[in-house]
Design goal:
It comes from Rhodospirillum rubrum (strain ATCC 11170 / ATH 1.1.1 / DSM 467 / LMG 4362 / NCIMB 8255 / S1). This is FecR. GO terms for molecular function: sigma factor antagonist activity. InterPro entries: FecR, FecR_N, Ferrdict_sens_TM. By secondary structure, this protein is of the alpha+beta class. The protein has three domains: 95 residues, no CATH class; 128 residues, Jelly Rolls; 71 residues, 3-Layer(bab) Sandwich (Phage tail protein beta-alpha-beta fold). It is 33% helix and 29% strand. The strands form four sheets. Strands 1-4-5-7-8-11-12 form a seven-stranded mixed beta sheet, covered by helices on one side. It has a seven-stranded antiparallel beta sheet with strand order 2-3-6-9-10-13-14, with no helix packed on it. It has a three-stranded mixed beta sheet with strand order 16-19-18. The two termini are 13 Å apart.
């Protein structure tokens, strides 16, 4: 693991305290009778309390993937694994190993809806992968990392569905057949143009470089906004957000193999890096979330970005199982 060491006076937590905290967290989930011994352990060093708080925050962050999986049939196996009689009736050392395996499994397993979307799509990219497609009408689509796209071309229609992720479109002109891209938030309709489309927690962000597009929310019939070159807007399920300008260098950086950050909060940087890594990155301390990051990084080397972050920010990195990364 990375991030060993840390003396009483340097503010850093020794790796052994974090490992011990994970063991105590597992014990207390099993049986409250360990509380007295736990209190004695805490009293041995004031830094142990902080190590345990970080462990609790890590497990709280892992509960969100658990809740998402629980709504899908594919989560049945995970839910069985989480039953205390199976997980926690082990020796202390094996509890830690199982806790790490469970944590990785919960975070790395595909979300139920994501798996369904991949099965419905014609083209899918894995985390860290990019791919370009030439459609039957001559239009070009570039898919960014972890994206899923379905294509339906016919004599009177050109209709695509982006289930997740991000894509760049260079649409061949055909006034008789509008080019329609659907997402869960709404539709983008064009006849010939170039634009970037990204789905995130805010909705579907459309950034137009050339031509003209019409934006329509999924659940607001008749509401349409028009974008012109250099403009962008976010399409939500019930409304289209305000039209604004955008920085083309940052928005389309991924097409050049770059991630561009301008005075960006670390929490947003982590969210962006998680799109390119198979293993997740978690922030264990809330006070790190608003640290600012600026720079241009290589999308094919997220580990290099992590090295740059830990080299320039007051952040320590711990790797668990080779995939999970915890910043603290």
């Amino acid at each position: 693991m990375a991030g060993e060491g840390g003396g009483p006076g340097d503010g850093a937590l020794p790796e052994k305290f974090l490992k011990q905290a994970a063991i105590w967290h597992a014990r207390l989930r099993e049986d409250d009778r360990h509380r007295k011994a736990f209190a004695l352990w805490l009293g041995e060093d004031p830094r142990k309390a902080e190590a345990f708080r970080q462990t609790e925050r890590l497990w709280a962050a892992l509960e969100a993937p658990t809740a998402a999986l629980a709504t899908d049939g594919a989560a049945l196996m995970v839910r069985r694994q989480r039953r205390p009689p199976i997980i926690w009736r082990r020796s202390a050392g094996r509890r830690v190993a199982l806790a790490v395996v469970l944590a990785l499994g919960l975070v790395l397993a595909p979300r139920g809806q994501g798996l369904i979307d991949s099965l419905r799509a014609d083209d899918v990219t894995a985390p860290g992968e990019r791919r370009s497609l030439v459609l039957a009408d001559g239009s070009v689509v570039a898919l960014n990392t972890d994206s899923a796209l379905a294509v339906a071309m016919g004599g009177d229609h050109r209709r695509l569905r982006l289930f997740r992720g991000e894509a760049w479109f260079e649409v061949a002109h055909d006034a008789r057949r509008p080019f329609v891209v659907e997402t869960g938030d709404g539709t983008v309709t064009v006849t010939g143009t170039r634009f970037n489309l990204r789905i995130d927690e805010a909705g579907t962000r459309v950034s137009l470089s050339e031509g003209r597009v019409e934006l329509s929310p999924a659940h607001a019939a008749g509401q349409v906004k028009i974008l012109r070159p250099g403009e962008q807007a976010v399409v939500g399920k019930t409304a289209v957000g305000a039209i604004d300008t955008f920085d083309a260098t940052a928005v389309t950086g991924w097409r050049r193999g770059q991630i561009v950050f301008y005075d960006t909060a670390l929490r947003q940087v982590v969210a962006e890096l998680n799109r390119y890594r198979r293993g997740p990155i978690l922030l264990a301390r809330r006070d790190l979330a608003d640290l600012r990051v600026s720079g241009v990084f290589d999308v094919s080397d997220p580990e290099g970005v992590l090295a740059a972050l830990t080299g320039t920010l007051p952040v320590r990195m711990t790797k668990v199982g080779g995939l999970l990364v915890v910043l603290r």
